[in-house]
Amino acid sequence: MVDLAALEAEARESLAEAGDEAGLESWRIDWLGRRGRLTSVLRGVRDLPADERPAVGAGANRLKSVLEEAVTARQLELLAAVSDGPALDVSLPGRRPPLGSLHPITLTRRMMERTFRDMGFDVVEGPDVELEEYNFDRLRIPAGHPARDMWDTIWVADDGSGGPRQLLRTHTSPMQIRYLERRQPPIRVIVPGTCYRYEATDATHEWMLTQIEGLVIDEDLSFAHLKGTLEAFVRRVFGPDIETRFRCDYFPFVEPGAELGVRWQGDWLEVLGCGMVHPEIIADAGLDPDRFTGFAFGMGVERVAMLRYGVRDIRHFYRNDVRFLREFDQFRGTA
Ligand code: FA5
Q: Percent of the chain having pLDDT more than 70?
């Protein structure tokens, strides 16, 4: 006589030991599979003496459905354990995605723009791909003029259409001409933007740089206005103790021309070129140079950023080394 009760106890015991889906599957094969223990019992019923057959058959069939229910229950139990376990603790706070911060040049450029806005300047932008005419000729830098060497140029490939020559602007000064085409004095505008020069890099020179051009045209403006404006700007950006110096410099589109240097690591760092707008440029704009005068300047944003953040090599800015860029996380929210 088959002891169905002992069989059930044994089956339940081994089911309790099945701890995962694979364990359940092998238990199913052992007990309920085609060659499983219970299946063999059921198969053996027909060989039993006739008087035992009905009881054992009924008992084994009942045990089969009992075990099928038990394995389903065990499966649900295991699933519940997994979803309640630490892997899916829905009460944990979410993980904060890493927050980036603005690039130091963007931070600096925005700070400079804000400073000029506070001083009453408008802000406009111009094209990076510029016509030779605006970048050079109309700024009084004709072909062959030695001043063109100061801006070693990246030219846009000639498409053979015979159209005007194009280049990546070497400075933001072409926007002086473009702005004068559209506006009448009084003019007080700055033009931030990227410039490109085909030149070797070093600690203070990059081949891609950001400039902020300034143009002011009105009646009776003198060099004193230029100096006053730029010194006020420099003090606002670097504090009242900053040491500055103006020196004569030459740019064909201003007369006289100057550069402004700032004391940096015991030396002087040139941060901008400037000067009084050349009377011919004022006349070319259809204005009377005896009535209107003005000044212009072009400053290097990377240079200002170097001074502001104590960066010793300009090339760090565009190397995209996150260890360098992360240093500016502390300035998040200051732009
Ligand atoms: C100019 O580009 C003139 N357009 C500036 C100007 C505007 C003069 C209006 C008069 C009136 P310069 O080449 O010196 O000048 O450049 C101006 C500033 O840009 C420099 O003082 C410097 O701060 C920055 N700069 C120039 N070349 C580089 C470079 N390769 N890398 C980083 N900054 C540069």
A: 98
